[in-house]
Design goal:
Layout lengths: L2 E14 L2 E7 L1 H6 L5 E5 L9 E4 L2 E2 L3 E7 L3 H8 L5 E8 L10 E7 L5 H9 L4 E8 L6 H5 L4 E6 L6 E2 L2 H8 L5 E5 L2 H14 L2 E5 L15 E6 L2 E6 H4 L2 E3 L7
Parallel strand pairs: 8-9, 8-12, 9-10, 10-11, 12-13
Antiparallel strand pairs: 1-2, 1-7, 2-6, 3-4, 3-7, 5-6, 13-16, 14-15
């Protein structure tokens, strides 16, 4: 079930270059949301007509938290908004991560794919051991938030400015990480490497795919993804059928 709700911004601050941390009071949408879903946020400025998809970072009591990157006109508009202003939001959209009853969980995030995993870590903290691997080009953000869930947090950065120097899958390989299930979000090249890592070790893996979306509700067919379907291949809509998929079903080539 999706609905449109106008929410009041409670907080909007910068946490890293071009990265913003926004909390909006959205009691109706937050009551329906689960980890791994996203919302569509409307600029409502008369210029940028299409809504922007933003992943849910954390679900609070009547609130939703978003940590997003300002990369275009729409998201830069959102980054300039202040507490007390209003935003029109459609959600919750898509399908989130299936929370299993396993005992050893691995979360793998890359760049702006890190925030959607925070609510997942919150949901898993009482179910078993949670190891979180976060990769960045430089520096890091949200580390303390993940540590506050009780998870074991490991950082990789391309330039070595934070934690392991190299990519996040390289960090996992160097540590020989094992577990029961992987939840991952980030750039496609990282997700492909995570899928290969999981397959070699017999670990179940769920990946949140990042594709360009226009409508966010499955009407425009602009975010299709090739998925293995029995003995063939079918096209699925990331916004409606995903964004989370079993990594073994994704056609990575």
């Amino acid at each position: 079930m999706k609905l449109v709700e106008t929410g009041i911004i409670l907080k909007n601050t910068s946490v890293a270059p071009d990265i913003y941390d926004m909390t909006i009071r959205l009691p109706e949408i937050s009551a329906l949301a689960v980890c791994g879903q996203f919302v569509e946020v409307y600029p409502d400025n008369g210029v940028n007509l299409l809504a922007r998809p933003i992943s849910i970072c954390q679900i609070g009591d009547g609130t939703l938290r978003f940590v997003f990157q300002a990369v275009g006109a729409g998201t830069r508009l959102f980054s300039s908004l202040k507490a007390g202003q209003r935003l029109r939001v459609l959600g919750p959209c898509g399908n989130g991560y299936p929370i299993s009853e396993e005992k050893k969980f691995i979360l793998v995030g890359g760049g702006i794919g890190v925030p959607p995993l925070l609510e997942t870590a919150c949901r898993l903290k009482d179910k078993g051991e949670v190891d979180v691997f976060l990769g960045f080009r430089s520096g890091s953000f949200l580390r303390e938030d993940f540590e506050n869930t009780g998870a074991n947090v490991y950082i990789a950065s391309d330039d070595g400015s934070a934690g392991f120097k190299g990519n996040v899958v390289g960090l996992m390989e160097s540590a020989g990480v094992q577990g029961d299930v992987i939840y991952s979000c980030g750039p496609r090249i990282m997700l492909k490497a995570v899928a290969e890592y999981a397959e070699k070790r017999g670990i179940k893996a769920y990946v949140s795919m990042e594709e360009r979306m226009a409508c966010g509700i499955g009407a425009c067919v602009g975010c299709t993804l090739k998925i293995k379907d029995g003995n063939g291949i079918s096209n699925k809509k990331v916004c409606k059928d995903g964004p989370v998929f079993d990594s073994r079903e994704v056609v990575w080539q």
